[in-house]
């Protein structure tokens, strides 16, 4: 890829006591690319995402956004700078509407402490950001629905919409396809394909068929370490990857 990386990860390491959960991982995220990180359970994928979003500190290494070192930046400041994430577990408020959930996400990302008296429904910025995000995620038609009544697939779409409401340039997506049926998976893959033109996407995902369809680049982790990184075709035939992870059916 010739364009400059939007987000760069350089020899990033995280230790939990004696365990090296992420070991000197180096990778780049580019605008217009889906970069999938795959690996067996416990390989360190979520720990990597948690370090990129700022939820946990790195033990060593460097993260840069647009060439600026953000390794020690607090989570909310990274979010403001354009690093958005979705979670493995659903984080929506089930009793609120779809639009309200998105609006809260937008407000959390752009807090206006001096306007605490303002009714949230009147906040033009967060309303506009929420509507835009719902539109991008294909959820405008269910904006008024109570979020808890959505199907599992639509809830995961709402998670992505809530992330979009924070106006990120980098999307860190932790298993967005988990628990989805075939139709829901197709819808989410269509959404990711449309989002990648204007975002750099890091996708952690166990659905290998989906990963090989949507990813432009795949990084394979085993026990915290990257064992291979490349385009899907090269990863598919990589003997080390086949032995360590994919098995003979890929
Ligand atoms: N807070 C923590 N304290 C101690 N060990 C942890 C902590 N978080 C993760 N680990 C350990 O770090 C290793 C990597 O875990 P991580 O959740 O990042 O893997 P993963 O690749 O995301 O797995 P999965 O695919 O199951 O989600 C595991 O051995 C895990 O037990």
Main attributes of the structure:
250 residues; Rossmann fold; 2 domains; six-stranded mixed sheet; four-stranded antiparallel sheet; 35% helix; globular; binds adenosine-5'-triphosphate
Description:
This is Branched-chain amino acid transport system ATP-binding protein. Keywords: ATP-binding, Cell membrane, Membrane, Nucleotide-binding, Transport. It comes from Variovorax soli. Residues 7-248 form the ABC transporter domain. It holds the Pfam family BCA_ABC_TP_C. This protein is an alpha/beta fold and 250 residues long. The protein folds into 2 domains: 1-82 and 168-250, P-loop containing nucleotide triphosphate hydrolases (Rossmann fold, 3-Layer(aba) Sandwich), CATH 3.40.50; 91-167, no CATH class. The chain is built from 9 helices and 10 strands. It has helices at 45-53, 75-81, 98-109, 124-136, 152-164, 182-195, 208-214, 232-236, 239-246, and strands at residues 7-16, 19-29, 34-39, 60-65, 68-69, 83-86, 170-174, 200-204, 217-222, 225-230. The strands form 2 sheets. The protein has a 6-stranded mixed beta sheet with strand order 6-7-8-3-9-10, with helices on both faces. A 4-stranded antiparallel beta sheet has the order 2-1-4-5, covered by helices on one side. Strand 1 (7-16) and strand 2 (19-29) form a beta hairpin. The longest helix is centred in the C-terminal third of the chain and has 14 residues, at 182-195. It starts with 6 loop residues before the first strand and ends with a helix. The model has no long low-confidence stretch (mean pLDDT 89). The structure holds adenosine-5'-triphosphate. Adenosine-5'-triphosphate binds at residues 16, 19, 21, 39, 41-47.
């Amino acid at each position: 890829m010739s364009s400059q990386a939007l987000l760069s990860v350089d020899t990033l390491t995280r230790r939990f006591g004696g365990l090296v959960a992420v070991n000197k991982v180096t990778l780049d995220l580019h605008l217009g690319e889906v970069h999938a990180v795959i690996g067996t359970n416990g390989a360190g994928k979520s720990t990597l995402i948690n370090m990129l979003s700022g939820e946990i500190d790195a033990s060593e290494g460097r993260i840069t956004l647009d060439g600026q070192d953000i390794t020690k930046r607090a989570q909310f400041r990274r979010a403001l700078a354009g690093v958005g994430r979705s979670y493995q577990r659903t984080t929506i408020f089930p009793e609120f509407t779809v639009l309200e959930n998105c609006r809260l996400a937008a407000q959390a990302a752009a807090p206006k402490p001096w306007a605490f008296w303002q009714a949230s429904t009147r906040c033009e910025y967060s309303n506009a950001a929420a509507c835009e995000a719902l539109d991008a995620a294909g959820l405008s038609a269910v904006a008024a629905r109570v979020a808890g009544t959505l199907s599992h697939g639509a809830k995961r779409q709402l998670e992505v919409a809530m992330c979009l409401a924070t106006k990120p340039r980098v999307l860190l997506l932790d298993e967005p396809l988990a628990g989805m049926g075939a139709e829901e998976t197709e819808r989410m893959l269509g959404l990711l394909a449309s989002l990648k033109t204007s975002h750099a996407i890091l996708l952690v995902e166990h659905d290998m068929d989906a990963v090989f369809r949507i990813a432009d680049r795949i990084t394979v982790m085993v026990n915290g370490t990257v064992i291979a990184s490349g385009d899907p075709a090269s990863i598919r035939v990589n003997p080390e990857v086949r032995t360590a992870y994919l098995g003979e059916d890929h």
